[in-house]
Amino acid sequence: MGKLPGDIGQFTELRVLDLSYNKDLTGSLTPQIGNLKNLKKLSLIGCGFTGAIPAAIGNLENLFSLSLNSNGFTGPIPASIGYLSKLRWLDLTDNKLTGSIPVSNEITPTGLDKLTKAEHFHLSDNELSGDIPLGLFKSNMTLIHVLLQNNKLTGAIPSSLGLVTSLQVVQLDRNSFSGNVPSNINRLINLTQMSLANNQLTGPIPNLTDMNLLNYIDLSNNIFDQSDAIPPWFSSLQALRIIKMHKTNLEGELPVALFSIPRLQIVDLSNNWITRTLNIGSYPSTQLQLVDLRNNQITDFDQRSQYNNSIGLRLAGNPICGESGVVDEFCSITKDTGTSYSTPCNNCVTSSCDSSLILSPNCQCAYPYRGSIIFKYPSFSSLTNPTIFMSLHDSLMEFFHKASFPVDSVALKNPTRNVDDYLVVNLEIFPSRAQSFNTTEILWITFAFVNYTFTPPEVFNYIYYFIPNPYETGNNKDKASNTGIIIGSTVGGCVVMVLLVLAGFYTFYWKEKAKRAPQQSHSFELWDPSDTCGDVPQLKGARFFTFEELHRYTNNFSEFNNIGKGGYGMVYKGSLPNGKLVAIKRARKGSSQGGLEFKTEIELLSRVHHKNVVNLIGFCFDQGEQMLVYEYIVNGTLKDSLSGRSGIWLDWTRRLKIALGAARGLQYLHDHADPPIIHRDVKTNNILLDERLDAKVADFGLSRPLSGANTTHITTEVKGTMGYMDPEYYLTQQLTEKSDTYSFGVVMLELITARNPIDNGKYIVKEVKESMNKNKELYDLQKVLDPTIGLTSPLKGFERFIDLACRCVEETQIQRPTMSEVVKELESIMELAGINRMESSSSTSASYERGSKDYSSPYDSDSLLSYSLGSLPTKLHPKNLQKAGQAERDEGVEEQAGCLWSDRLPQ
């Protein structure tokens, strides 16, 4: 895929950018990313980025979530991240970051200590060094997770850690911390999980008496002072599930009460100085799985004669096992030799499938979506216990069904421990409606894991990562991975859903214009009136470009800059020297229809200036080339959005706004342009959507001006597009403004049905009229409606909209309204729908935001499900959309739309 282009910095209204799991996205992260000041979520998980994290990332003042984990970033953590005052989620895990953790001081004005709203510091698996600064933690912080394991940090654990009483998880293992554990650490009364293992900590074993919620504690491999007494909290912390204190100089006799903690599962106290008699009591915890006391000084075992292997007791290396003739099972040095767990099939008749299909647990042959879930701190040791993994299986299926994902079954296979002692569970997810998932369904599943919307059973803990495998089916000869799917969809979607134009450099622009003035005065010297282009065009304000200029602005008309093609020729994206992006329409050599259309568009568009009409910036008539230079409209055509190719979901409100915008553009052409203009090719392919989804009428190649005696009608050769063409114009060749009205009426019907005007031999106008029943709700048109149109809001004004569309497509022109009348009626419908004129003509994308409520924690499954699925193609997920759409508005991100779906992806 290459590098993330610097052009990304021009998408200044982008709200969500998620390019996760694209290994081919490499190189450094461009500093232009700092221009995306409206960005709320940046997720680049599992890509191939290298180099330093740019300091410009601190410019993303609205950022809520920053996930750069699992890349190859090097260098220090930028102190500028401290400027992200709204940041809740910071994940830089699994990179190659070096240096110290930045905090503010007299020299540096900011650092991570400024992130007082942050709930997550995930900085593990890097090469960070030096002390944890005392000033990193403050009492006004809202941190939940501090994950710093597997770095090269040194020095003492700062006592300021005890000030952050909101903490639930602290992971500082696998560093080189030394000195005493701070005595005030027991103030962290909300802590559920703590690991300080594999350091060089000294002093007394920390007092954890008040941590009544603690269920996982690992202090292994430290050099604590020896004491004659076991710490009293061993038997008082009733939430404990796992206690690991391997090689910690622990000394004394274990209290019987330790083993009766009701949810205790694992006790690993091996390689210590535990003495005397072992007594696990008559009623140990029913969940107890493992008691590892190898290499201690235990001399006797009270329950020796009654011992059974339901509890994995390990006493090898103790004096009790050195007695002559001892053959007790607990004295042997054996490992769990049970068969690793795999989800069983449901009594399938067949045991195999044809070709590369896989048999699912429900006995269906299909292509599963595979991946691995890595759980960092599960609360169990056995990998053969079916009950534990069945609970994970059931949780996954419950999640998929509640989210209405098309999942038939799930298979868990071969759980293992990796080199970091993390649990790795291999996963196969089988489709329910076909033999394979489509692109969007793969995205649903992947993003559900990426955004932590799945909550695993409690014993697995909730710190996990999903690593997807390439998704291969019988049709995927190129073995396209879901990585490719995700980057294609996200990059394509982000290009489709962003604000495009940077503020122009005013002084530079006028200097350039002055330079071009001599060229422009001679721009028509080679214009040949005898050619198909006609007389020299009469222009107002369009700029002349040389061929060399446009050649340079489009990177030599590279394939990368090619954004479309048609009968006229190719369309290229270009960037002017002032940073403004343009769309350059280049006529094919020898194009039979390009000459007059070229002149027509130059003449007409140089005279029209309206926010709902695409703006002509200039043209090129040089070296035999004919090119038109337009403003670049970021979100493509209305047709692309209605068909689903762009991935933009249009609800009822947005469709009304688009209809009104396009109508205003046509009204301007008919009533206010000089001379008035008949477009003659109004269709959804010629209505473009800008960064605010405002409609812009485009493509004036077939347009005709009205002047003098022709203000009523003109006789002309019939041109247009079948399905949109006025039948009276077609029969009489009499062209008037009402011909555009007819075409616009077809566009209105297309807006509510998302169908082509002529589809499988059915004409949309006839089909709607024949299906209508005005005595029923929504005129009984539910069968022909786009199913996504009203999923998040009622269709207020729908009947009046249909009435207006039907008036526009009347057989005779005299029965149709003018575009001025259409605009007035649409404005009235907007008011009926509760959309005032200010909102319908707002100048910024903020008009789509309905609130300012803060985001919830990324581990809040309800809020995150709404958040992540809100950006999916809504038509494909009807069951949850009403909730998802409402959650988007509540969260103030109705127009987040950063992770979208490209029309180039296979289905």
UniProtKB/TrEMBL annotation:
Enzyme Commission number, as recorded: 2.7.11.1
Give the top-level enzyme category: transferase
CC annotations in GO? membrane
Q: Which Pfam families match?
A: LRR_8, PK_Tyr_Ser-Thr
Query: Which CDD domains does the record associate with it?
Result: STKc_IRAK
The keyword Repeat appears for this protein: yes
GO MF annotations for this entry? ATP binding; protein serine/threonine kinase activity
The record gives the membrane topology as: Single-pass type I membrane protein
Superkingdom is Eukaryota
> What is an annotated GO biological process for this record, any one?
defense response
- The record lists the membrane-crossing segments as 485-509
Protein kinase domain residues are 557-830
* Residues that bind ATP: 589
Keywords of the record, alphabetical order, are: ATP-binding, Glycoprotein, Kinase, Leucine-rich repeat, Membrane, Nucleotide-binding, Receptor, Repeat, Serine/threonine-protein kinase, Signal, Transferase, Transmembrane, Transmembrane helix
Annotated region (Disordered), positions in chain: 840-860, 877-907
Spell out the subcellular localization from the entry.
Membrane
Its recorded name reads non-specific serine/threonine protein kinase
